[in-house]
Structure formats: C-alpha cells, structure tokens
Amino acid sequence: MSNITVWTTPNCNQCKQTIRFFEKDGISPRINDLSAPENLDKLREIKAAGHHQAPYVETPTDAWSGLRPDRIVQAVSQERQATPSPSLQSPTHTRDMST
C-alpha cells in the first residue's frame, strides 16, 4: 500500500490524470472522494490551507493541489526509496547447513 493519498472530486479530469501518472509508475495511491459527506471536514481543511483545486495530493513529505507532473515524479521517487525492492529483501527460506 502506498503512502500517497489523492483526494478527488467527481468528473475531475486532472484527478484521473494524476492517478494515471502514479499508476503508470507502479504506485497505487489511496483515493478519497472530497464530495463524500464523510470527507467534509477534510475539504474544509484543504480549503483553509489555501488549496482550491482538485486533486489534492498528500505524501509523507509534501502536499499540493492540481495536476503537477513534476511533484508526482518527486513523490514516486520518494515512495520507491521508502519501499525496499523485493529483489533486495532477504530470502524467506533458509538452508540447513548442518547436514
């Protein structure tokens, strides 16, 4: 699971493109709909911070609104650095060398 959240609105082309950019690079962000009643407080928080455009993207180190390919590239790079590559992880099996 990704540490990136994309807050969207219905019929938002920039939202769809942002999600596609992440997915193209192998990142599956959490996607939340800002128009859902349970997200009203989040919408107010985002607007209070000065953001008035969807999507609103949150990463562990950054947040922005609108379609920002430059920021997406940075977020993907940081996400990859934070998640170890499966080929670099230690093996899940061990061999008994005592026999």
From TrEMBL:
<feature type="domain" description="Glutaredoxin">
    <location>
        <begin position="4"/>
        <end position="46"/>
    </location>
</feature>
<feature type="region of interest" description="Disordered">
    <location>
        <begin position="76"/>
        <end position="99"/>
    </location>
</feature>
<dbReference type="InterPro" id="IPR036249">
    <property type="entry name" value="Thioredoxin-like_sf"/>
</dbReference>
<feature type="compositionally biased region" description="Polar residues">
    <location>
        <begin position="76"/>
        <end position="92"/>
    </location>
</feature>
<protein>
    <submittedName>
        <fullName>Glutaredoxin-like protein NrdH</fullName>
    </submittedName>
</protein>
<dbReference type="Pfam" id="PF00462">
    <property type="entry name" value="Glutaredoxin"/>
</dbReference>
<dbReference type="InterPro" id="IPR002109">
    <property type="entry name" value="Glutaredoxin"/>
</dbReference>
